[in-house]
């Protein structure tokens, strides 16, 4: 596993500096001896050939290396006889300590700069240490990584930054098709046009329709897409990943963060990736590999006041030379969670530290978005054309709507968003999407075309009212994990990127300036994210009263009060509590797919490029296996067989 993650071949310590001996120099201000390293051969244990090891202590060996200018020392404490460092340490500037696991390998801890690697004796997992660990290579995570490295260059500071991504490649978990507002990108990478960002189709037409079963009624568009672009978000994320790596960020796709790591004070110190090679019954298969721990570096370092623990050469061999020293507390290292909507680790942090209650935030509300990417006839393709709709096929009590974006290369992205607080337990979001494509105004575009991709994802729609306190001990939550989606715009990429940038700036001040991560919360409230989400706060809850009252209230908010309505509307029940019992509704009879415009679930799943081994653990586990049989089926008609667009509950 470690070799998969390393950027360079693991190398022993002796290969870095195979020759050492020590001589004595005078410290100009204190007239005390300080060891200086000059070439001479030494053994892998860190001591000269055929020499005793006088520095052996109850905890191991202690020796000191001086690298370069102004007596900047690097201390290592090794409780085993053999030293082995799998990986490399880059640009160390301050002191670190090494704690072994008793089997000849090292778990390395350093303070500033450089990646340290080793093994964790407690969990038998390999350990890689970074200054900042970012979970999720999406717009928020990569923007945070880029901004951190930009600040490092500006301030001449070396911080190691790692991004882990569950997708096999950066961008594979993001389906193409997005109307992109470049505001945050303009701030992050002002020269993005000159640097070849895959953003080259400006919005040329912005339409808004109200659909009935057979008609499309045009309304004034409320989306303000002038200056925006129709893009492939997956391509943009790949490009951001390349930019991050150019700046020195280490990006590791194919590794899902599965566990939060804590210290004795309940502070987050990193994450662990999932174990690989687990069978369906939980046993270890022949290809089993333990996950990797990605941790912040140690919270303590040795501060040399005058001179160092070292080795001084003399007539009778090497003598220990010990001086006074202090242990000082460092600011600690940070973990940023940018997993996307309802990220599993982010949700654990919100619950564990009561982050929503800390700011009296309301519960989060969600929607399900189902999307396809089509290749259409060239005569029907209008690059930059953007369409949003409300109404049919959804009923008047269900919030949602559709979108249709013309990208480049004859590609069109079409999708349906359904709020998950719908009342009818017989509603099937996937089948509603298939119905949408048969609307006369939509069908004529898709006829003769070919589906290229299919996918679905959840969206957080709670907006301003549901934002949790985004800072927890040892890190912060960024992007859609915190819920920065602008619901009426149906846009969250620009706010996700900006939140990542603000978190990065706060993290840099923590690590370099000794400030508090709470500055991230203050920066958010003083940013354009806060103003934008505040102005949009009443649109989603307005539709709690139904489609037409929601249209009236949102129109009043937009055109009369311009986002300054004196009252902040509250969300209704949590989504799962909004479902009616089955006896209050009749089953919905959906038409069979025609195989040309509408399709069955297995066909769509094939296009999603989702691959699962037969002999692997299920990614969904029921807390109480009796609920589907004794509650869901008799009371609600078994809605889990309909609300998942991949039918995983079956």
TrEMBL record:
Organism source for this protein? Answer: Rhododendron griersonianum
* Reactions accelerated catalytically: a ubiquinone + reduced [electron-transfer flavoprotein] = a ubiquinol + oxidized [electron-transfer flavoprotein] + H(+)
What biological function has been recorded for the protein in this entry? Accepts electrons from ETF and reduces ubiquinone.
Matching entries from InterPro entries are given as: ETF-QO, ETF-QO/FixC_UQ-bd, ETF-QO/FixX_C, FAD/NAD-bd_sf
Q: GO CC terms for this protein?
A: mitochondrial inner membrane
Molecular-function GO terms, alphabetical = 4 iron, 4 sulfur cluster binding; electron-transferring-flavoprotein dehydrogenase activity; metal ion binding
Q: Where is the ETF-QO/FixC ubiquinone-binding domain?
A: 366-459
Q: Mind telling me what this protein is named?
A: Electron transfer flavoprotein-ubiquinone oxidoreductase
Its Enzyme Commission number(s) read 1.5.5.1
User: According to its UniProt record, which cofactors does this protein need?
Assistant: [4Fe-4S] cluster; FAD
The record, for PANTHER family, names: ELECTRON TRANSFER FLAVOPROTEIN-UBIQUINONE OXIDOREDUCTASE, ELECTRON TRANSFER FLAVOPROTEIN-UBIQUINONE OXIDOREDUCTASE, MITOCHONDRIAL
What does the cofactor field's note say? Binds 1 [4Fe-4S] cluster.
- List every stretch annotated Disordered: 572-594, 601-620
